[in-house]
UniProtKB/TrEMBL annotation:
E.C. number(s) listed in UniProt: 3.1.3.16
Signal peptide positions (record): none
Regions of compositional bias (Polar residues) in chain numbering: 338-349
The protein, known as: PP2C family protein-serine/threonine phosphatase
Pfam families (alphabetical): SpoIIE
Keyword Transmembrane helix: yes
Segments traversing the membrane: 41-61
GO molecular function, one term: protein serine/threonine phosphatase activity
Naturally occurring in which organism (per UniProt): Streptomyces sp. R11
Enzyme class: hydrolase
InterPro entries (UniProt xref): Bact_Sigma-Reg, PPM-type-like_dom_sf, PPM-type_phosphatase-like_dom
Region (Disordered): 329-349
Keyword Transmembrane in annotation: yes
Keywords: Hydrolase, Membrane, Transmembrane, Transmembrane helix
Length: 349
């Protein structure tokens, strides 16, 4: 005889228990003499038996659904770790802090995307917002982020990076919506591509995304006020794309990139959250670090919306800390320490 080792599969138990309970109820009804009687006492006993069986089935189904929900959240958490991987605290002399919060409570990942990568062309960052949120947006996030992580190393021109992202999105939409009558035309992604050179020079390509805020000294202003390009998806990009010069990120300055879910957050009276005002308050009352800015903004947004935001929110803070990095390379007596061309990033604590 063959012997089956291990535990009985959960699916067998899930199907077997309700079947056994149902069989017991039917057997009782057909074979028990008490169940054949029409007296009040017999009816009460029969009703109690079927009530117990029904209650057991409901409890069993509820537990099965809770197990499935926990499994879905576990898978969503794994997807988040793979897509929105934790960023290093320092990337090529820039202090970095980022976080996102999905509006879909059943998912750990939403439709917002971001990443920062040091390349031979400079530090390149992306912030984007996929139409929709929750688990259904994961595929589009994966397509855009996967293309960005490859293209930033291959393409010296930021415009060609954006073209690569646009083509990756188009392929994803074609594969996802094979039906010609599907709503593929409604799929779009807002994207902000940003490059910071070694001298701090900032160049940007913006496709329908909110402009970042620049924190310089005690001032908080939008990085630019130019009209952005249309979002990726509905309209073709121009063949030639010229990145917009946006000044420099000087030592001590910070950039705050965000998705529109931040400023769309409303309080009980329907008033929108003012990100610029929150940043001004953070600059005035706190020591400015990337982590401090991030914590202050998330706390302010959640307090404003009372934890009930209607859209995904994501924040990415980049602070130029290159002066301190350069000073750290000086040893005792002013002797310069050996500097590596590709310093190893330090992970978040």
């Amino acid at each position: 005889m063959f012997r089956i080792k291990g535990r009985v599969p959960r699916k067998v138990i899930a199907l077997g228990l309700p079947t056994a309970w149902g069989a017991m109820a039917i057997t009782y009804k057909l074979t028990c003499p008490l169940a054949q009687q029409n007296s009040l006492g017999a009816r009460v006993v029969t009703s109690a038996v079927f009530f117990a069986v029904g209650t057991g089935l409901i409890v069993h189904v509820r537990q099965a659904l809770l197990r499935e929900l926990r499994q879905v959240r576990k898978v969503a958490g794994a997807a988040q770790s793979a897509l929105l991987r934790p960023l290093p605290a320092h990337i090529d002399g820039l202090d970095v802090a980022a976080a996102q919060l999905s509006a879909d409570r059943s998912a750990c990942v939403g439709g917002d995307l971001y990443d920062v990568i040091a390349t031979e062309h400079g530090v390149r960052a992306v912030m984007g917002d996929v139409r929709g949120h929750g688990i259904t947006a994961i595929g589009t996030v994966a397509a855009v982020l996967g293309s960005f992580r490859e293209a930033v190393h291959d393409e010296p021109d930021l415009g060609r990076v954006l073209h690569r992202l646009d083509r990756a999105l188009a392929r994803h939409v074609r594969e996802r919506f094979r039906d010609p009558d599907s709503p593929a035309a409604e799929e779009f992604v807002t994207v902000l591509l940003l490059e910071i050179g070694r001298d701090g020079e900032i160049t940007v390509l913006n496709c329908g995304h909110p402009w970042p805020y620049l924190l310089s000294g005690g001032t908080v202003e939008p990085l630019a006020r130019a009209d952005p390009l249309p979002p990726l998806g509905p309209f073709p990009l121009p063949p030639e794309l010229t990145p917009l010069p946006c000044g420099s990120l000087l030592p001590g300055d910070s950039l705050v990139l965000y998705t529109d879910g931040v400023e769309d957050a409303r309080d009980a009276r329907g008033r929108f959250f003012s990100l610029q005002a929150a940043l001004i308050d953070a600059v005035r009352n706190h020591t400015i670090t990337s982590q401090t800015i991030l914590r202050t903004l998330f706390t302010a947004v959640l307090r404003h919306a009372r934890g009930r935001q209607a859209d995904d929110i994501a924040l990415l803070v980049l602070r130029n800390d290159r002066t301190r990095v350069a000073c750290d390379r000086l040893g005792a007596g002013g002797t310069a320490r050996p500097a590596t061309t590709n310093p190893q990033p330090t992970n978040h604590p």
